[in-house]
# Entry
Amino acid sequence: AQTVTQSQPEMSVQEAETVTLSCTYDTSESDYYLFWYKQPPSRQMILVIRQEAYKQQNATENRFSVNFQKAAKSFSLKISDSQLGDAAMYFCAYRSSYGNQFYFGTGTSLTVIP
Amino acid sequence: NAGVTQTPKFRILKIGQSMTLQCTQDMNHNYMYWYRQDPGMGLKLIYYSVGAGITDKGEVPNGYNVSRSTTEDFPLRLELAAPSQTSVYFCASSPWGLEQFFGPGTRLTVL
# Structure
């Protein structure tokens, strides 16, 4: 099984500031997908952003961007101009291109301070 | 579009009882998944399906069974419930096996 590690159980950020959530993963494969999911208090999981390993360019979705370092097996999420609605658990996930299973990290709880 | 719906939202079972968690999606997605989320943990894949009639085990399949007779439905069966199966269960679907759409979850307690 693949291992996805999120070493920051909790993070906090001031409203309108920028925060970076860390994720590392362990794989011997060269082709795979990485994801960040958001889980607000409602528990509904929502996809934030996706990165294909074969793409060198970092993915961006509005205020959300990633720093994908393939050699270091690192996949961090940057949230710019943080808003109160960004408060949630954030999960990093991995999926091989050669299989159908997803592997999730243990999550980072983000608090946004007004 | 209701998306992915799960029933029930909450359930308390006694040890040794059985139950079925229902999952339905109306997006005509081929892929469907069942996960469990234990407190303070990420999601663990129980079973998944890549189409009607096809199912496969995930990371933690023991104590569970699934079937996929239609594209829309993917029920999860718990036989002989145990306290270790206390968890929140999420169903998800995906058109191509990448972006997943999740249901609201079922909180199950086994006493």
